[in-house]
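Teaching note: in complex prediction, the entire set of molecules is handled at once rather than each chain in isolation. The prompt given to students was simply: 'Predict the structure of this complex.' The entities are:
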Amino acid sequence: MSRPAEPHLPSFAEPLHVGRPNIGDRDKLMARINQMLDNRWLTNRGPFVREFESKIAEYCQVKHAIAMCNGTIALEIAIRALGMTGEVIVPSFTFVATAHALQWQEITPVFCDVDPVTCTIDPARIEQLITPRTTGIIGVHLWGQACDIDAIDAIARRHDLKVLYDAAHALGCSYRGQVIGRFGDAEVLSFHATKFLNTFEGGAVLTNNDALAERIRLMQNFGFRGHDTVIDIGTNGKMAEICAVMGLTNLESIDEFVGANRRHHSQYRDGLAGIPGLRVRDYDPREQNNHQYVIVDVDAEVAGLTRDALVEQLQAQNVLCRRYFHPGCHRMEPYRSYFPNAGLLLPVTEALCERIFSLPTGTAVDDEDIGRVIGLVRDFTTRARRARHPATRVA
Ligand code: T4K
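The expected output is the structure of the full assembly:
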């Protein structure tokens, strides 16, 4: 995949992506597809979706897993089923789907700053954002790191608010040793192609609340109870059988996917150690993490180049690293126009959005690719320091 550096050619002949899909055993996948075709049952909660739901519920140690067509619709339906209205407090440092899922149904996302260490919503900042219109809090377990769930629960109890967790990154991760999935009123997963466990497109709502699960099932299927009776407004949030087929096959390889991610994360961390101003963010060793995001933090002052300059140079070499997440949602439309001064209350978010980027990992990347990416980063940062201090010998 890679080739020796030549001045006019990128280092990698083929682009090295962040979010290249992991694909499990193809023979098993094909066998399941054949079975699905023999069944002539392609959607509407067929046998593969039911099996996938029960395997996900078991994996996440939660009573109900309701499979959905994607994570965004799963968020929208969960928000609606929880009765959130008015204003909901949410981090801006997330993928824009978290905010859009609210605004789509005319609920105002009220952006809250994040903790500089965990990069998840800062409970110390939540209470000052609560108004009489606030109905809920959405925490995002960013890069699989759990929010401060105990603190958020305590605030929600004090103010009678609903709590939803966007766990799009957090399958197989833990909070205080307990698997993500059962926390808050509900949690939402994404199985998008770029997630370490994918169903092509897909998502799920997880909850231990029977009544909520029933409401969500109704809403995801047009409000149907039985064949002819519609008892409420609903939409189409169903997962197709082919997606569950992919999910079941990938679930059988989940340990292999996490193993590859974990190895790559260590390789990047060790390989980039000691570069002034650069840090591969570590995950709390007391918790489980799926290691699907390798996040680098760049201190431009010390490194001698900005995050954007480094990303640009890597991309020119076909290393398509991504700025997950930049800019904050508050700097995207329509929020930017609605709340032009939101950034004043989001100093940590603003700083993080300028510093972090993610590197390619997953089963589509091998040790040699990573070694080469490390070499490029070392080369670019060394040159930047030399350019800044030409008289000094830089290691
Ligand atoms: N909440 C959070 C916190 C999320 O991160 C997300 C999704 C959601 C909610 C919503 O869940 P979903 O509705 O998506 O289920 C990507 C994904 O589309 C999105 O799912 C994900 N988060 C987000 C972090 O990343 P983009 O716009 O960056 O995708 P794109 O097309 O630029 O692809 C990313 C990289 O992956 C590219 O380098 C190409 C590569 N790629 C992509 C696809 C689709 C492949 O190699 N193969 C592929 O099939 O949003």
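Point out the following to students. Residues 367-388 form the longest helix (22 residues). The pocket of T4K is lined by residues 17-21, 70-72, 94-95, 97-98, 140, 166, 168-169, 190, 192-194, 203, 320, 324 (CB under 6 Å).
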